Amino acid sequence: LAGSVVFISLISLLSTLLSYVVEDYWLFLAAIYSVCIHGVLYLFYKPRGYAYKIVWRAALLGTGAGIGLLTTIHAPSSWKVFGWYMILICTFHFSEYFTTAIVNPKSLNLDTFLLNHSREYGVAAVCSWIEFLLERSLYPELKETWWISVVGFVLCITGEVLRKAAMFTAGTNFNHIIQCHREEGHVLVTHGVYSLCRHPSYVGWFLWSVGTQTVLVNPVCIIAYALASWKFFKTRVEAEEVTLLNFFGEDYVQYQKRTCTGLPFIYGFRVEL
């Protein structure tokens, strides 16, 4: 916050000065912004301490969102949607940690940011960047199809709202990791968004995932992300419902009968008691 305040107070002057020196001065603004943020963190937090590990991740996401904003404002038209994407993805990862800190702080750890969610997640992200860069170089006008990006933006926001609503509704019952043992106080949540479908947090993540590629107007990755996400959630939902049936028995069977999973062609794990 302190670094942002310092930077924002100087941004008008810096923009004026840099515009006389280089054409793409916004890139230098982004670099200066990053240095300000991480310089302040290094001064106020003990390097290598646990708190520092948290704040540099949060600052990295904040810096990414800030650079995304600068890209949206100052970059050439074909780059602007990448700025939207940066804002969306950084906001998602930060909000995962922030929301968990509110609803279930006991489960907090560095992995709650979901930055290292899985190797496949990282590979998928890199593939989407490569597709964007290649298509922007070959067909820059494709990345200026604004209505498609707007549809993607709406998908991302809808997914974010639904996922966070699920997290707040579940409260301490929410966890990023499938639980093998029922903790004391763990109850079956069936109200709020959970009355609409059994896995609203996964539905939200699915919408957000596909939405990010729609924002980038990445036709190949839109399809690939949809298929990969569907496969991941099919396996995840079935594994999770096995544990939920063990935890809640007949109550969960009746809940399954009243609701769908919320994900297309995914029916979960069913058993007749």
Automatic annotation (TrEMBL):
Report the protein's function: Catalyzes the post-translational methylation of isoprenylated C-terminal cysteine residues.
Q: Which GO terms describe its biological process?
A: methylation
- Localization annotation: Endoplasmic reticulum membrane; Membrane
Q: What is its EC number?
A: 2.1.1.100
Q: Which Pfam family is an annotated match for this chain, by its short name?
A: ICMT
Higher taxonomy:
Eukaryota, Metazoa, Ecdysozoa, Arthropoda, Chelicerata
Coarse class of the primary localization is endoplasmic reticulum
Q: What is this protein called?
A: Protein-S-isoprenylcysteine O-methyltransferase
What are the GO cellular component annotations?
endoplasmic reticulum membrane
Task: Say which family it is in.
Answer: Belongs to the class VI-like SAM-binding methyltransferase superfamily. Isoprenylcysteine carboxyl methyltransferase family.
